[in-house]
Amino acid sequence: MLHIKCPHCGLRSQNEFSYGGDATVKRPELNKEVSDKDWDNFVYLRKSPVGKHLELWQHISGCRQWIKVERDTLTHEIFKTLKANEEV
Amino acid sequence: MSEKFRLDKGGLINRNKKISFKFNGKKYFGYEGDTLASALIANGVHLVGRSFKYHRPRGFFGAGVDEPYAIVQMTRNNEVDPNVRATEQELFEGLEAKSVNCWPNVDFDIGAINNFLGKFFPAGFYYKTFMWPKSFWYKVYEPIIRKAAGFGAASIKHDKEKYEHKYEYCDLLITGSGPSGLASAYAAAQNGAKVILAEDKSRFGGSLLTSEVTIGNQSGQEWAEKIISELKSMPNVVIKNRSQVFGYYDHNMLVMSERISDHLPKTEKYIPKQRLWYIRAKEVIISSGSIERPLVFGNNDTPGVMLSSAAKEYLKIYGVLVGKKPLVFTNNDSGYETAIEFKKNGIDPIVLDTRKDPNSEIIKEAKDLNINIKPSHVVVAAKGYKKVNSADIGKISDDKKNISNIENIKCDCICVSGFWTPTIHLASQSGNKTKFNEEIDAFIPSKSKQKETTLGSANGIFTLEETLKTSFKKGNELSKQITNKENKVSIPSVVEKKYSNHDKFWCVPLPEGKNYKRFLDFQNDVAVSDIQLALREGYRSIEHVKRYTTLGMATDQGRTSNLNGLQLVSDIENKVVPQVGHTTFRPPYSPVSIGAIVGREIGKHSKPTRKSPMHYWHKKNNAVFVDAGVWLRPRYYKQGNENLFEASKREARNVRQNVGVCDVTTLGKIDIKGPDAAELLNRVYTNAWLKLPVGKARYGVMLREDGIVMDDGTTTRISENHYHMTTTTAQAANVLSHLEYYLQLVWPELNVNVVSSTEQWAGAAIAGPKSRDVLQKLFPDLDVSNEGLPFMGYMEGNLFGVNAKIFRISFSGELAYEINVESDNGNFMWEKIMDIGKDFNIQPYGTEALSTLRIEMGHVAGSELDGRTIPYDNSLEGLISKKKDFIGKRSLSKLAYVAPDRQKVVGVVPLDKKTSIPEGSYIVKDAKAKLPNPKLGHVSASCWSVEYDNPFSLAIIKDGKNMIGQKLFALSPLKNKTIPVEIVSSHYVDPKGERVRS
Ligand SMILES: [Zn+2]
């Protein structure tokens, strides 16, 4: 079980969080033309990198904030955690 | 039966307390402090089971967790417990155990015929043999294999024992209380670190309990006792025996199972059986020691052949002789320690040493004791079927290839020592890529992966002096970093015997013309010939060889077999062991009972149970409850002898004719506030929200980005910047997370706050043509006429002194209202409604009637919004705004979503108007078509229409739009039904929706 440092609450066990996928995906803007390809990329296609991965977690059993976690998908090492509005 | 093999004195058992127990129905005696194994051996019992594949007789091989054979089925407190090692099970008064993997009994085992058919059971036998004919697998092979195989039978009863879970944090977790564990724990504890010291056996001290060493001026055992008693007195130290740290997980979390009462007789007091500890440790010290390696020779699985360290342990801890004519077969000095123990207790052993000219302190001591030592000698084969009665021994040539001078000598046990294998499982689980150490011919941990440090013999250090020195040092260093304190402890002097080098020789060659089985894996019956065959058949990777032959795949994880298997593969392949590599160790290190993993989260306790404030009223009024997610909801209210069908029909009919009341507290509720609240709703829902006036509710559908319907519900504008959203019971948590996701990450510029208010409100839906009459009497001061409170209207009222929110919304399709009051007033509201409703024949209705009402109205719910359907499929396309963008809108133009024959919800009525259609049935054109019969869709929900008094179902079928009026079939292979049906509109009752507006 991972140990994740919520930037709002501190170090907590993984079972307080839920996983939210790739944090680098940007939702296309509303009311803008989006090509089929770009939309499919946004909805379905995700990279599955070995190594560093910036991902979203929500501290559902804590502060309910969505946070960003930079984690190694192979070793589970967590390099840093960020608030939703922070960039790496 | 008397204890013929118990010494008159010695050992750590309590000779003042005699204990009776039963094994295979026969009564025996032992002492407090015995294991089942030591007590059986004391009684001369060596036949305890049958092997997995060949059903060869099995005895004892080890004295602890290393035991591959002696697995028994236990009975304790009338509960059976399979897969228990007799070498770990402590004796208690009334213990009952029996052999496993034998049928009809251990002495006469039909499966043993496999032994004589041995050549038909080579490596990969199961893969090769049971492949054909295919039908034989189910009828013949599988039942026979199931009967014959396995290490015991799980109980089919509910386990009445209790298991606990515990979470713990510490600075240092130390796994094993041998010399390295004690020294490092002591040093760390002195520095004020929070230490957990775990020992899997009942006694602390590890190898110190059986070795002849002096530490300071004490024996090893006395020193261990002193350290333990000091540690026990320290408040920063937790010491646990009978506790196996079996798994090393991510971020230094380890899991330990503590056996609390497995060793105790039944008691009236509450004692959990086991406790599972989840331990997050800043640093982990792996001091798990090492396990003696067997030597491989003919029939080396015969009962009476065992590890020499085990024989020594039975002698020194339990005062038990494993035999009275022992043969010690060794390639190193350890065997001599066992031989000397025998000699000291008046037994004359013979030592066969594979080395040509062994010479060391301990060998000299053995010689001085006149022990018969035969250098350059090996055991060729053990003789005897159910117990060793002699051995063929011979002289081995210097190149270890040839055997000469074979003779048979009498013996009743063979104690083998093939040097030591460090227990590296935990380090390996941590992710440590272990390395091969040529000096000890075994793998040891290399660079730490997590915060783990391996010490002592687990790290390949076999001298006590070095072990203590490094362990005190490491314990001090690691704790100092955490506590910033240092209390140096002086390292005691050590007296121990110096060892000479071991012989790099493990496998005795077969003498010419002999075809003995030489076992590598004792639990899974893998012999040298199996590995040779696998390699001949082309298997190369050790991971493949392992799976093909099952080497090391048994519950003992190959503790006694892996290295010998690797040596063999490397010999045949002409490679060195590190090139062959070892297989991966995975948790658990040792079997853990399912009960311990589950803990107290069983049955109803596996999830929380939520109850509405009106729950006890429902209960008092004969409600039959149903699980709705984590909620308990009334399914129906039983009157007299009614069943579910009759009661729900009565309740639904009363809603259609008079008025009913339903507890809708469970609906998810989200309070939404802020100047941009309308904008958020406009982006989240598919329809338009910007112009919803204050005091009005609107029905909305929300999608996922992929266009699939996520949830539906009504949202009401309470005031300018304040909305009350409702969600389905099931999706409440997901919808909240969904809103938070968009507000926090995608559109942080929106000034809106959302919070769950599900638990703040109790809800009652009043539905039926007479509902307005009831409402008027509940709120005499309000204008609740069709003009005063129109459909989708909202107002606040005073319910006999209680603030109430009144929504004119309907799920039943009737004229209906929902009243919300603060949760604590829920019951008050409910009783008022029932009281006032009496005059109008009000009846409460449960979820079954609720379903009936919505199904015949064609209102879609969870069974249609099942995570696979888009708005069109649910006939919700009218709610999709063309003017604005919203979550998931772009996906709705996907080709598949706009296909002309796209699936759509329809109504289904059986032609005979009698036969109910099982939910999940397929809709097909031709009931007799060849399989696979093309499926048009499935029945999502079924009810008995109270409006028409016949069965009615909803189905989502291909080209549903054009199917109305078609005669098709509903097939339910599960219920074995074929029902001719007609497709009708999904809006079976009141298709124009006039009632809700009346
Ligand atoms: Zn938090």
CATH level 4 superfamily of chain A: Folate-binding superfamily
Mind describing the biggest β-sheet of chain A?
4 strands, antiparallel
* Distance between the ends of chain B: 91 Å
What kind of sheet is the major sheet of chain B? 7 strands, mixed
The gross shape of chain A turns out to be globular
Protein structure class of chain A: mainly beta
The CATH topology annotation of the domain at 163-290 and 422-495 in chain B reads as FAD/NAD(P)-binding domain
CATH class identity of the domain at 163-290 and 422-495 in chain B: Alpha Beta
Give the largest interface.
A-B, 26 and 24 residues
**Level-2 CATH architecture of chain A:** 2-Layer Sandwich
Summarize model confidence as the mean pLDDT of chain B: 93
Output the radius of gyration of chain B: 37 Å
Number of separate structural domains of chain A = 1
Radius of gyration computed on alpha carbons of chain A: 14 Å
Percent in helix of chain A? under 10%
What does this 3D model show about the protein?
The complex is a heterodimer of chains A (88) and B (998). Chain A has 88 residues and is mainly β. Chain A has one domain (1-23, 50-88): Folate-binding superfamily (Folate-binding fold, 2-Layer Sandwich). In chain A, 9% of the residues lie in helices and 38% in strands. Chain A contains one helix and six strands; from the N terminus they run βββαβββ. In chain A, strands 3-4-5-6 form a four-stranded antiparallel β-sheet, with no helix packed on it. In chain A, strands 1-2 form a two-stranded antiparallel sheet. In chain A, a hairpin with a 5-residue loop joins strand 5 (66-72) and strand 6. The two termini of chain A are 24 Å apart. Among the domains of chain B are: 14-125, 2Fe-2S iron-sulphur cluster binding domain, sarcosine oxidase, alpha subunit, N-terminal domain (Ubiquitin-like (UB roll), Roll), CATH 3.10.20; 163-290 and 422-495, 3-Layer(bba) Sandwich (FAD/NAD(P)-binding domain), CATH 3.50.50.60; 294-418, FAD/NAD(P)-binding domain; 516-573, Orthogonal Bundle (Arc Repressor Mutant, subunit A); 899-997, Elongation Factor Tu (Ef-tu), domain 3 (Beta Barrel). The termini of chain B are far apart. By secondary structure, chain B is of the alpha+beta class. Classes of the chains: A mainly beta (88), B alpha+beta (998). The A-B interface holds A 1-3, 13, 18, 20, 27-28, 30-31, 34, 39, 42-44, 56, 58, 60, 64-66, 75-76, 78, 84-85 and B 249-253, 278, 280, 431, 449, 683, 705-706, 733, 737, 740-741, 744-746, 748, 884-885, 890-891. The structure holds zinc ion. Zinc ion binds at residues 6, 8-9, 59, 62-63, 65 of chain A.
